[in-house]
UniProtKB/TrEMBL annotation:
This is M1 family metallopeptidase. Zn(2+) binds at H321, H325, E344. It comes from Streptomyces asoensis. Pfam families: Peptidase_M1. GO terms for molecular function: metallopeptidase activity; zinc ion binding. Binds 1 zinc ion per subunit.
Length: 455
């Protein structure tokens, strides 16, 4: 990649994390067994209807789930991440995501700045048993250009749907929302979503989508998404195009008329190449299609299963990094609040490999503020040290490139392929990765981890 384009893409990427800071809470520590995580194998059935411009959606949502814990499950929590920026709202401007008319349990008062809603189950749910809760949901898109926000006539609905919180050996994960990076931690689930909207709006969404005629002047977009960690969509009078990769993945592009045409073309070309290459390196992309949503002023990029939001210039965007997240967070899950390096550093390492960046001198761009700063720090730390968060994008891929040189390129490739397969649709931790890497060599890697601040 030309140096100028490398610089621009990096700036675009870092711009995605330049928003505000919120309170930090205690997070689960590394090494928690994913086998203890519950509720598991959830299914979301969602029916929503939009207003005239896609700025408000309302309808009904049902989520069924099973308890995989050895202990009875007496409650569940919904994460209303869409309230993260506005918290509980004000009397004149209520919270963007409101849940009401709950069936299948008794709701409590919203907590954690209205991003967590406890629902007490009518009776304890034993191990292996399933149950469901249902509720009305109202979603109002905030007036800001963000992953849950708007740009002109275009609406972005990332983290807008309520999703189940995770309970594991460390208890319920009810960490606060952060706009600097992500707080999200979810197990894979199945989604069946029906979106009723004006026919003037195109609606890219997670999963396999198809459209049906609705009422007069309206269209219904149906989406089926299996084994994904979240569901996102967008709405607006997008221009569209579809390409299919040699490996059979549909790449669907959606862009605003003022998005630079050269950037749209470049994103499409890079996406077609990247989705197949990562499929060869990490395991075949399992979702069949990927949607690229492109606008000129969106801040950086943001990843969701099967859909990425991209701020696009004439020189493209961070599309390859965001597509790498389909594996590093999407397929190989992690607690993004506790261990953000496990998705961001791995995605940026994959991005660097795709473009053939020279990494032998990448440490020249890395500055550690003090000896206590760790690459593996949580969002509780990074939220209080905003100027250091770039380290997960700079020091992280440098560390992985050094590990590649330590193990050898072929061994590193086998490590990553095996690691993805071992954690396919699961949850990984830093401790898991360190064990996996150590299993590939007779050399003691403990000095490597300490030198690279992987703790």
């Amino acid at each position: 990649m030309p140096r100028r384009r490398l610089f621009v893409v990096l700036l675009v990427l870092l711009a995605a994390v330049g928003a505000g800071v919120h309170e930090a809470g205690a997070a689960a520590g590394p090494g928690v067994s994913s086998a203890a995580a519950t509720p598991d194998r959830a299914r979301y059935d969602v029916t929503l209807r939009s207003d005239a411009d896609g700025g408000h959606w309302s309808g009904r949502q049902r989520v069924s789930f099973r308890n995989t814990s050895d202990q009875p499950l007496r409650e569940v929590y919904l994460r209303l991440w869409g309230n993260g920026e506005d918290k509980c709202g004000t009397p004149g401007a209520p919270a963007p995501v409101i849940v009401s008319s709950v069936e299948g349990g008794t709701p409590g008062r919203p907590a954690v700045d209205c991003t967590a809603l406890r629902i007490a189950l009518p009776k304890p749910l034993a191990r292996g048993e399933r149950t469901s809760v249902a509720f009305d949901v109202s979603v109002t898109v905030p007036d800001r250009n963000a992953r849950f926000g708007r740009e002109g006539a275009y609406r972005f609905l990332g983290n807008a749907l309520p999703v189940l919180a995770v309970h594991d050996a460390r208890g319920w994960h009810l960490d606060p929302y952060v706009a600097l990076g992500e707080s999200f931690y979810a197990l894979t689930s199945d989604f069946r979503v029906r979106l009723d909207h004006p026919s003037t709006l195109k609606v890219p969404a997670t999963g396999h989508t198809r459209t049906l005629p609705g009422g007069p002047g309206r269209t219904v977009t149906l989406s089926v998404a299996d084994r994904v960690r979240d569901f996102a969509w967008a709405a607006g009078p997008f221009r569209t195009a579809t390409r299919t990769t040699p490996g059979g993945v549909r790449v669907k592009s959606y862009w605003t008329p003022d998005t630079p045409a050269a950037g749209v073309r470049l994103n499409g070309t890079d996406a077609v190449a990247a989705i197949d290459r990562f499929g060869r390196e990490f395991g075949r992309y399992p979702y069949g299609e990927i949607d690229l949503v492109m606008t000129p002023r969106f801040g950086g990029g943001m990843e969701y299963p099967g859909l990425v939001l991209l701020g696009t210039t004439e020189e493209g965007s961070a599309v390859v990094h965001e597509l790498a997240h389909q594996w590093w967070y999407g397929i190989v899950g992690n607690d993004e609040y506790t261990s953000p390096w496990l998705d961001e550093s791995f995605a940026q390492y994959a991005n660097a490999r795709f473009y053939g960046w020279e990494t032998s001198d990448c440490w020249s761009d890395v500055y550690w503020p003090d000896d206590n700063t760790a690459l593996t720090a949580s969002m509780a730390y990074w939220s209080q040290h905003r100027g250091e968060y770039h380290l997960v994008y700079t020091a992280g891929p440098c560390a992985l490139a050094d590990l590649e040189r330590t193990l050898g390129a072929d061994t590193m490739a086998r490590l990553l392929e095996r690691y993805v397969q071992d954690h396919w649709y699961g949850v990984s931790t830093t401790a898991d990765f360190k064990r996996a890497a150590q299993s590939m060599t007779d050399e003691d890697l403990r000095p490597f981890w300490e030198t690279h601040r992987i703790r």
